[in-house]
Amino acid sequence: MELFERLADEQTRLAHGISLVNRVDTDALGLVAGVDTAYWTDSEGVEQAVCCVVVVDGATRQVVRSVRAQGRPTVPYRPGFLGFRELPLVEAAVARLDVAPDLFMFDGNGYLHPRRMGIATQASFALGRPTLGVAKTYHRVDGTDYQVPDDRVGAWTPIVAAGPPEVLGAVLRTRQGVKPVFVSCGNWIDLDTAVTVTLGLVEPSSRLPVPVRQADLATHQARSQARA
């Protein structure tokens, strides 16, 4: 069987374990980790990657931990299979934490995926914690499209599959006059809670929630340092 056929079968198998029943207490949100991965080609033409995990206090939004892991991706790039490329580095970075986040927020998708297995969802099985995805760009799945939400903070519209109707995510306006973000459940969280948590961690300086924004900045820094 061809590699990506086997990986698709593995995603389909894992999808049976997805639960969109919420386990996140938004009234007592503790530590929230942002996760992002960046890629580049080194001087020898070899692809490299770094995953940064930045843990933020859910109440104060202050960074309490920041770790990273760097290495060579072992799975070729193909849309829909990002989890297999990134998960080894995600696990390696998380293993360096001396705190246990209550929630992981990924720069990417979760349930908004052809097999409902974006990086945020796939990683949940290894991390054993609720997860969600916040993407900066739209990933069209199963013929989905979306309606642009009103231009006010907190407005959102659902992303609904064109086949059998199923809500796959939300288009969320986090800042007025700024492009929305695309929120989807990872695992052990429902969409309303994912939207609430995302919105609650956004500051005026960015349309992204603080954990994801800090992880994004950390990967850019790490990549620049590695290239130097």
Structure at a glance:
This protein has 228 residues and is α+β, with helices and mostly antiparallel strands. 28% of the residues lie in helices and 26% in strands. It is built from five helices and eight strands.
Describe the model:
The protein has 228 residues and is of the alpha+beta class. The chain has helices spanning 3-15, 82-94, 119-127, 191-200, 210-227, and strands at 31-41, 47-57, 63-71, 103-107, 131-135, 156-160, 167-172, 181-187. Helix 2 packs parallel to helix 3.
Oligomer: single chain
Enumerate how many helices there are, as a single number: 5
Number of strands: 8
Rg, Cα atoms, Å? 17 Å
Low-pLDDT runs: none
What is the helical fraction, as a range of percent?
25-40%
Major sheet summary line: 8 strands, mixed
**Beginning-to-end CA distance, first to last residue:** 41 Å
Key traits:
228 residues, 5 helices
Task: Walk me through the topology.
Elements: H1 3-15, E1 31-41, E2 47-57, E3 63-71, H2 82-94, E4 103-107, H3 119-127, E5 131-135, E6 156-160, E7 167-172, E8 181-187, H4 191-200, H5 210-227
Parallel strand pairs: 1-4, 4-5
Antiparallel strand pairs: 1-2, 2-3, 5-8, 6-7, 7-8
Helix pairs in contact: 2-3
